[in-house]
Design brief:
The protein is an alpha+beta fold. It has a domain of 180 residues. Helix content is 46%, strand content 10%. It is built from 13 helices and 4 strands. The longest helix has 24 residues. The chain is elongated and about 70 Å long.
């Protein structure tokens, strides 16, 4: 951001972001992760001069570029002004302090027994239409038995979820490379993750100060260059995002993820529409 007029603002911002980053020393790893600025994803530097903060497309480490896109950044680091104006005009910007949640937006097939036809299809010479007609003639009990016991992994069931979680949780899922992620840009306006009641008061005060400073920085940068304001957000801030994935990818997430709580929320949502398949996510199917 080569802006001589506002160079001092960005210089001060860079220094204060570094100060926030330095505060994470001396606290437990989990808490420290939530306090880290997103600008720390940038592996080069925060320039403390009139060239100021950073331009995503030129400063981002190649291995982190995909994660950055999944966090809502475009290649140029900008959001179309027309979109911003539309959101402001129709009051579509986020409210403060939204509650964390997991919501199932969409699922396929509507009837989970229809998945039987999809994973029998490669083993038959029947057309898809003829196969489904034949399966409709088979008893409900027998189709359920096949869905419960087959060793073949169903590939067709698919789901789309919406989340409001910390940026840190989003990054953890994105790093596993499973499914397709779409995200809004990071903002402090959804609030941030609360610490456990057992955390020492001195750490809690330090934690709250980090987020207060982050919000002040965000507001300061936004007034000058809104496209760069997200750099002042922390990994503990909440962000809204969606994930689209297949059944077997959800099963992979369950085995690969270190934090099972988010995955368990997803499985709970699936159980309301695909009870048999959701049970198979957490148990080994037998022949």
């Amino acid at each position: 951001l080569k802006d001589k007029k506002h160079g001092r603002v960005f210089s001060d911002t860079g220094n204060r972001l570094l100060q926030i980053a330095e505060r994470v020393s001396g606290v437990d790893t989990t808490t420290a992760d939530l306090m880290r600025p997103l600008s720390q994803m940038l592996t080069v530097k925060i320039t403390i001069d009139n060239d100021a903060l950073l331009v995503l497309s030129t400063s981002m480490h190649p291995e982190l570029q995909q994660t950055a896109k999944e966090l809502g950044y475009t290649d140029s680091g900008r959001v179309d002004d027309t979109v911003t104006h539309f959101l402001e005009k129709h009051d579509l910007l986020p409210l403060m302090g939204s509650e964390q949640h997991t919501t199932l937006l969409w699922h396929y097939p509507k009837n989970e027994l229809d998945a039987v036809a999809d994973y029998l299809y490669p083993a038959t010479t029947l057309s898809s239409s003829d196969l489904r007609t034949k399966l409709d003639e088979i008893s409900y009990t027998e189709r359920v038995h096949l869905l419960e016991k087959t060793g073949i992994q169903p590939s067709s069931p698919s789901y789309k979820f919406e989340f409001l979680t910390t940026v840190s949780e989003l990054i953890a899922v994105a790093e596993l490379g499973t499914g397709y992620i779409s995200s809004q840009k990071p903002t402090p306006q959804y609030g941030f993750d609360a610490l456990a009641p057992t955390i020492e008061q001195i750490i809690e005060d330090q934690y709250d100060t980090c987020f207060a400073d982050s919000f002040a920085l965000y507001s300061q940068i936004q007034a000058v260059n809104p496209d760069s304001a997200s750099y002042a957000t922390l990994r503990g801030h909440k962000i809204r995002w969606t994930l689209r994935l297949h059944w077997h990818e959800l099963k992979d997430l369950l085995s690969q993820s270190r934090d099972k709580s988010l995955i368990n929320d997803m499985i709970q949502q699936v159980s309301s529409v695909h009870p048999i398949l959701s049970k198979r996510l957490t148990t080994n199917a037998s022949d």
